[in-house]
Fold this sequence. Notes:
With about 725 residues, the chain is α/β, with parallel strands linked by helices. It has three domains: about 1-95 and about 320-445 and about 475-545, Aminopeptidase; about 95-320, Glucose Oxidase, domain 1 (3-Layer(bba) Sandwich); about 555-730, Transferrin receptor-like, dimerisation domain (Transcription Elongation Factor S-II, Chain A, Up-down Bundle). The chain has 22 helices and 16 strands. The strands form three sheets. Strands 1, 2, 4, 5, 6, 8, 9, 10, 11, 12, 13 and 14 form a twelve-stranded mixed sheet that branches. A two-stranded parallel sheet has the order 3-7. A two-stranded antiparallel sheet has the order 15-16.
Amino acid sequence: xxxxxxxxxxxxxxxxxxxxxxxxxxxxxxxxxxxxxxxxxxxxxxxxxxxxxxxxxxxxxxxxxxxxxxxxxxxxxxxxxxxxxxxxxxxxxxxxxxxxxxxxxxxxxxxxxxxxxxxxxxxxxxxxxxxxxxxxxxxxxxxxxxxxxxxxxxxxxxxxxxxxxxxxxxxxxxxxxxxxxxxxxxxxxxxxxxxxxxxxxxxxxxxxxxxxxxxxxxxxxxxxxxxxxxxxxxxxxxxxxxxxxxxxxxxxxxxxxxxxxxxxxxxxxxxxxxxxxxxxxxxxxxxxxxxxxxxxxxxxxxxxxxxxxxxxxxxxxxxxxxxxxxxxxxxxxxxxxxxxxxxxxxxxxxxxxxxxxxxxxxxxxxxxxxxxxxxxxxxxxxxxxxxxxxxxxxxxxxxxxxxxxxxxxxxxxxxxxxxxxxxxxxxxxxxxxxxxxxxxxxxxxxxxxxxxxxxxxxxxxxxxxxxxxxxxxxxxxxxxxxxxxxxxxxxxxxxxxxxxxxxxxxxxxxxxxxxxxxxxxxxxxxxxxxxxxxxxxxxxxxxxxxxxxxxxxxxxxxxxxxxxxxxxxxxxxxxxxxxxxxxxxxxxxxxxxxxxxxxxxxxxxxxxxxxxxxxxxxxxxxxxxxxxxxxxxxxxxxxxxxxxxxxxxxxxxxxxxxxxxxxxxxxxxxxxxxxxxxxxxxxxxxxxxxxxxxxxxxxxxxxxxxxxxxxxxxxxxxxxxxxxxxxxxx
Length: 730
């Protein structure tokens, strides 16, 4: 019903794409040239290439260090060279654990040994490749041999442990079992270890990712009972990349940490399992019945434990340095060769990786092919375009991070922006990134047709937003982590975007042996129409950045967005204060005691520590000053500047994002330099905006919160001064 209404709404209220009168960053005389170039680019995109290349690249498993992974990198290099790019493979040597021993046993009350094997399915020959398939495991789990009572911890996120505390359940000395989803997987063993657990098991519950959602593979797209999600549990919120070379490239002769000293390897062993293997473990638990929101889709009563279920978990890994092959393809710009526009997508996968990442990679390749063809015909970009196919993304953003760390100084001098894609599907355009690029992305999204609906991808997304209760306004989301943009924006301070389509491509193949070409063709993007749409969107963005007279950065929207983040933090602090005051009043008035069940033991709650008033004035003052400076900058007609002044402004715009970083980085994780966007310390992929301030408040560290307010205010002042310098050029 929702989708019928969506189509009706679009038919009634949304116009088809009309010719745009202006595009940000171009003088009137160059605007038509750019639009004509983009039209020529769009007409040359061919879905058949994406289909053919996916079959080639996902034919065999190709995780980091495999022979087929190397063959793929060499094949990609060959394609780029044939399209006219100066291409090379940069190799790094990174620590990668391969599972040697995986043992999970229920020892009490009824013995059961987990199968830990996904079954091949009819009609998908890629699932029958036997020993060639990577065993299901969590990379960067530590080795371990532990035996203990089991405790069910729901998703294993902070609020779940708060609930356990209320129930008087302690996981110290226990092994926990947590559901996938709710947070990034690496947070689950991280929190469990902090709470004293000695092992962690993660499974996909059918309510979230199985038969409750729809028919399972091969009948439908969702995870069958034997499917297991692989994935890294490296502590990426501390730093991503090679665990032994934090902050510098993992070159062949790089100095490396001893593995026992690597802080991003988990402190306890962790193993992912199927819901077939999870059911006997959960069924053996007793103790409190799980809260309603914790209960999954298995045909059992969900208990928390601890016990009487006891489990034995034993893991051993082969820890070796493996080569990671980053393919770097460069198309030199005609006018500004030392200003780079960078595009990236990774090529490694946990198994075949048809959806993650090949669906996005083939779109990037087709985009690069057409850009190269246009260049051969004389339509070369003004700025240099660099296309990258990263290796070792899956174990922890390793290939891109090592390359950025190895070339950081040059990148900070030259890179205009980095545009990232990853897996791609059918549905709605998802776009996140630096909010100074929002206006430009908005314009591009309005220029590309949705392959199914006959309206622009912007209009379709806005309509969906309205149906779901939003304002129907296009915007960029903030970037947390989870793909290769992370080292660019959050470490090097380079403006970045992350793009992809999805929302109508649900399924349970993620990081399983079922992420294959047959699965993708049946359930994801059968005609590769959205692959072409992704190439169209990302390609237009790349070309506009490469050819703009004035780089299309816009700061009014940036100011509006960041002001909203500040309002959120201030309101959340006030909300926390009100809740504490309400609680303490109820304690003083014995409300808890009066409301208690007289038939049950009662422990009177104690007063909570009062929340002090934080002084947000430094941030409010800097944001007010920034508004005036930004208004002055945006009011200027930069299109009328002399070529000399345009060039000076562009040089400043390239480095504007870097002024939003702090060399000291975030507390306890100095690798993360950006003061506006970062992955959360306890959310992983999920973003924390104004992270230094926000996370200190969430952790109730009021001294640190006030210190981070000062740090952020200093960063904003630095940004203000930088824009004032641009105003002086104007």
